[in-house]
Structures
1.
Amino acid sequence: MLVFGGIALVAAGMLFGDVFAVFVLHQNGGQTGQALLGAAKAVAAQDSSAVNAAFAQMGNLLEDRGTKVDAHVHMIDAGYLALLLALIQPYVAFSAPRKKLLAKLFLTGGLLLPVGIFLIHYVGLAYAPFPVIGWASVLADSAGALLIVVLLVESWGFRNYLRDRSAGPVEPEPPKDRTWERRALLSGGTVLILMGFIFGAWYAGANLYEHEHREIVILKDLLYQPAGAGGLADSLNAYGSLQAEKAVQIAAHSHIIEFGLLAILLSFVQPYVFLTERWKRIWVKVLLAGSVILPVFVLLELKLGLLAGGVADVGGLMVVVALVGMLVGVVRHTGSLDAEARGAR
Amino acid sequence: MSRSRKLLILGGTVLAVLGMLYGLYYAVFVEHQTLDRMGGSLAGAFNHAAERRWDDSQTALTAYRGTKYDYIRQVDLHSHWIDLAMLLIVLGVVFDEVAFAERARFAIALAMLTGSIVFPLGVILQTAHMVPQMAQLGGSALAIAGSALVIAALAATAVGFMREGAS
């Protein structure tokens, strides 16, 4: 249940991210830039009410974007955690029905958390129980709390297992065969994570503070409008470029690490993917290729523009397709187990 | 189960719970207020500029800069702790396949866990404005040292996976 639910959550979260990147992200960025331009023009016209209106629009756009990014990230992370929990189940000393209940609760929380986050923008503060926290936030926070409780209980089960070492695993461990798929996913995933860490360290050292400083300089230009050559238009372009620069670098860093982690996790579930060796290898190659293509072409977006963006989206889609392919294998595996059990009866 | 695996799985689980508890606390008690303050100070900077109150506008812009600086690092603490925790647990499951002696594996696991705790902690220390400047600089040093530890440990793990003779 956790393996199936985990892969399904990751695939759904990635599909949502792809749809968001294609249909919402760029349009939202353009509208935010226009709202900022409106605010700067209102400053020049000494019109405070127009400034307020522009900022209300910007706040709305940023919330729209932020909640969708958060829904995407949290759904994928919940999927990862579900896969992780699946892996440690042999070392969690609880009865099978209790484990099943915990799995159901975890997947419920993992689904409701991103749904709640997604709804924050649309539900807003309608009939809100608190001054700044609406019902959608309450749903998201409650789902998050449910995940924490399940994790704590699972930790307790793990502690019970450690206290009684002589008993051994409470259920069979997954087979640790050194197949080509397993080795490719394990070493490929570790290398992807390492690349992501090194890129992140470079970003923090070389760009983070510079970006923060540049943002304030541009905002000052917009506010106090020096007699520069391009005036507002130049400042707005500079602001847009800075936001794009930040977005692609952070996205490349986070995506390559997430894909590395996903590859390692999927190396463990390969014994449960009931497909021929040929198809298993195809999905592994598609997944690893997509995991490299997406972050690399996200980074290249600044140089190659929309073409690179399109290739990056294709990379994301390759990962989703590979995940769905493996998911089909997991479904076939559970089906074969059911058939075996029926045959034995 | 080997000591290195236990360290990674248990340490990762505790770190994940810590990261989530921090995220829950932050979402309920801090985030909305911080976002309001951040948006409010930026809007205030523009409003004051429209009214030609330049000093007030500058003050509001400085407040925006400070709030955003804190916000980015506070959110980073949450996400990095949970992501690193997941990595620890994942590697914990498969750590016996790192082809080094158990003693070396334990050292790598310890370095990874220490780095995973220290790196985000250093990031959040950079936002502790009530402590002296030196402590904030110490935060930066901790963040750098922590991330270097994680990178070194991960590189060693990658080498271990590629080596022959994994158990």
2.
Amino acid sequence: MPQKSIRQALNEALAQEMRRDPRIVVIGEDVSGGAGTEGQRDAYGGVLGVTKGLIGEFGEARVIDTPITESAIMGAAAGAAVTGLRPVAELMFSDFLGVCFDQIFNQAAKFRYMFGGKAKTPLVIRTMIGAGRSAAAQHSQSPYHIFTSVPGLKCVVPSNAYDAKGLLIQAIRDDDPVVFCEHKLMYDLRAEVPDEPYAIPFGEANIVRDGDDVTVVALARMVHYAGEAAEALEKDGIEIDLIDPRTTSPLDEDTILESVERTGRLVIVDEATPRCSVATDIAALVADKAFAALKAPIRRVTAPHTPVPFAPGLEKLYIPSPEKIAAAVREVYGYAR
Amino acid sequence: MTGIAAITMPKWGLTMTEGKILGWLKEPGAAIGPGDELLEIETSKITNVMEAGESGVLRRIVAAEGATLPVGALIAVVAPADVPESEIDAFVAGFEIAAPAEDEAAAGAAPAPREIQAGGRRLRVLELGEGGTPVVLIHGFGADLNTWMFTQPVLAERRRTIAFDLPGHGGSDKALAGADAGAFAAVVGDLFDALGLERACLVGHSLGGAVALAFARARPQRVAGLVLIAAAGLGPEIDGAFIDGFVAAQRRREAQEVLRRLVHDPQLVSRAMVEDVLRYKRLDGVGPALEAIAAAWFPGGRQAVALDPAGLAMPVLLIWGREDRIVPAAHAEALAGRLPVAILDGAGHLPHMEKSGEVNRLLARFLDGAPPPSQ
């Protein structure tokens, strides 16, 4: 099976879905891929390279470049969704959600409810998350917990190219607004991806590794760091059950709870800040519904409650590392009352 | 160090790179012979029993239970009883893993499935081996050519083998021209034509067995021999709950429960096997294809396709697992007076995976033209 990067997988998902359904449009800043570049219309495929080739195949009516105004992008996309199109809108950096949050939080997320279930809002918001590029505090955050906390929004946080394609196709086919979070350091990560279209259902976690000693729940880039930690831990005879929820809303509670009921130990790894986060939410879930199974305190390995530092050395310390994950697993594994 | 032989981690299927030792079935010091069950190995797909290839004494177990080792790694040493321990030690110390992947890369011919056009549709095909009467392997409902991972490499040591994905399955086109036995038999004919096969032996499992039988009845001159493994089409009973559950399953847990009905020992169904099935089922077009096949073949939890395997000109062999919960072994037992039938203990609906050693020996005898073992 062909190996594809996350960037290629997302591009393929967009192109295949746009071929299938003429109501699908792409809207955002520079999504036509290098507007203004002399002599070339599609030089870059957008700032992320994900929309490359779409303007050539589908034209300007379906690949819509906008001014630099996130409120207009999200407002136009939400209105288009509720009136019959199926927009895929790009919020280049999730850090910019503040300037368009009304359109997402109080409009798109509420339409179905406010209109008595008669309105559908098939809107996808693709957005970049993640630290690690020294992009500083305003371009490095992972605020998927904010989207997760909003009733009416679904939130996807893929960790590999296979999931990225199948979850983006599912997001596009979904009749509710979906925020699709892409980690900016993972676009070149490759995996086996079928050429054919496929949809992965929301709310179904992926079990990355099987183990009976400690349950580790990790998201996005942290899935790979937890995998590195697992390799080191395996040498010491500690086997982790590594769970990637893939979607934070809906959340596959059953897979997490069943695993903890077996292992009795839980470590949650989340690149976001810890207050009111997905990691904290999952810790509460397990304390609430699997307390009797726990043999050790729940440990969260997260960023600290600070802005993301610009200085590379500090940023490296800010992001959870395989070493920190392994240390947390060892701690709960060796815990004795 | 004459007479010292290495037992190494086998390579089952194209994607296997390592295996985990689940448990040894023989103790050090035991005398072993070809076909004796040595140990259980878990791959990323399924757990299988490894059998001894030669005779000797199991002198040294190198890989302990729980160890995960790459393909080709030394797991045990077989030698005559009179070989001194020091020579065994030296053999273990001096053992180096052969690097088959690099050899294949150097030869530029690592076996991989390819896509062909046959009868106006895309079929995924895996060809292994050469010479002899070709053998075409036809998988069952919802499966793909990987069902033959323990079968095809062994058969291919002495003949050309061709495994392929039926329409609606694996890497072949998902759209069906028709879902009934005649439509699928026509696909087999298209495959023969596309590959230039004049005549071949057919080995079919479950629905693939019925497809093979339908083709053999329609085009007997092109079929040199017919092996039906837990085949559909030989009686009205079928586990309708399995069919419905397989078609409906979208989630890991649902798929796992359904797949466990396939095998005698539910522990054989690994998480990776479940994941592979889900990945297949998520592909666009698979749902409608499976629904169409289920409606044509198994309406109302009964088999609608009835084919008579007796009276064919070519040799026929039936292989079944005694514990088959999907298609009962009684379908084969009813034919035992007229056709050679092998019913294997300790196997469910996947005898070619659950008892691969026994099935491979039965297939080898059959394909060599030897009379089947008496029951």
